[in-house]
Amino acid sequence: MEPNHEEKRNASLNRALLILSCVLLSIGTCGGPLIMRLYFIHGGNRVWLSSWLETGGWPIIFVPIALAYYHRRTTEGPSTKLFLMKLPLFIASAVIGLITGLDDYLYAYGVARLPVSTSALIIAAQLAFTALFAFLLVKQKFTSYSTNAVVLLTIGAAVLGLNTSADRPKGESDKEYIAGFLMTVAAAALYGFVLPLVELTYKKAKQTITFALVLEIQLVMCLFATIFCTVGMLINNDFKVIPREARNFELGEGTYYVVLVLSAIVWQTFFLGAIGIIFCASSLLSGIVIAVLLPITEILAVIFYHEKFQAEKGVALALSLWGFVSYFYGEIKYSKQRENEKKKEKEIEIEKKDTPETADVCQLDP
Fold first, then answer.
1. Which of 254, 260, 273, 278 is nearest to 199 (CA)?
2. Mind listing the pLDDT tens digit for each residue in 277-321?
3. Domain residues of the chain, as ranges?
4. What is the pTM for the complete model shown?
């Protein structure tokens, strides 16, 4: 009975953590692009600064790491280590962090040139790349339901890209628009590679992956991504320009700094949510959750920035919801099948244990 109770407890904790991660990812996915676009709409034009803000909130992660440490200390005693990460895992996390820093720049460049509505192009490509790299790197198994979800979500997001030219910012040249488009697609491809790469790191790590360790991995990744973007800011003289840009910001100098701080915090919820879902489930699910949140981001962009809500966005919303339901229906169905299989395996094991005893009795009977 005890192992059964422990399994149920772990399953409940995993479910709670997965729900929390989905909430965090929802805040980051919807809020991040909107706040970043707010910066560019009202006078901000520093791409390296915007990319730096995507991971610059990494010190926030020290809070959950400290809480996890005190929790471990209550059970393990004073000898508990503050950090669990070993050198090979640190190096792997640092490399992924540098790749993430490059991806941050590509994404920020795209957002600076394109309206929020064209984030559909990012999500459409990102989900397809995530599925591809998840298959190649971590041998992700696809069911008919998960395949259906990927196809529907990708088509739904691509539909949003059919009429993006109508939302082109005023005064922007064809060259700038195309550059933003290409940078956006490149960012999608790169982050589609990063998500499965993180999952592969978990699988290949030569130490037990706990959520406390996952937080440390995220801390190192964000730290090195921020270092990458800091170098870009130094080369581009962004630090010197910030005070002048703040004074000229259309919403006021105080609001300028509030926008920067909020951007750093909200983007950190995105990364914490993404790595939490990878830890609890898979990189594919992380990509699917990001994709299904796209229509909500689109609606928020319409509300706050008065972007047009064309028929394509309504179709995309329907397809995205259909894909989301398809994926989770499949997961529920296959989890029930796995539970039934485990029950049958246990019954067979019990029968095997009972069989020798019966045989012994029969031999003693004569």
1. 278
2. 888 887 778 877 887 787 788 778 778 877 666 677 677 777 777
3. 21-341
4. 0.78
Q: 122: closest CA among 298, 271, 267? A: 298
Region for residue 171 given its phi and psi (left: phi exceeds 0; alpha: psi -120 to 50; beta: otherwise): left
d(Cα 148, Cα 331) in Å, to the nearest integer? Answer: 12
295's CB contacts (< 8 A; 6+ apart) are: 156, 313, 316, 317, 320, 321
DSSP3 helix / strand / coil % (the chain, rounded to 5): 85, 0, 15
Three-state secondary-structure class, residue 86: coil
Q: How far is CA 178 from CA 47, 104, 115, 167, 292, in A?
A: 16, 18, 13, 14, 26
Per residue in 255-274, pLDDT tens?
999 999 999 999 999 989 98
| Structure tokens that stand for 8 in this block | 């149920």
From CA 36, how far away is CA 293, in angstroms rounded? 17
* Spatial CB neighbours of 328, under 8 Å, sequence gap ≥ 6: none
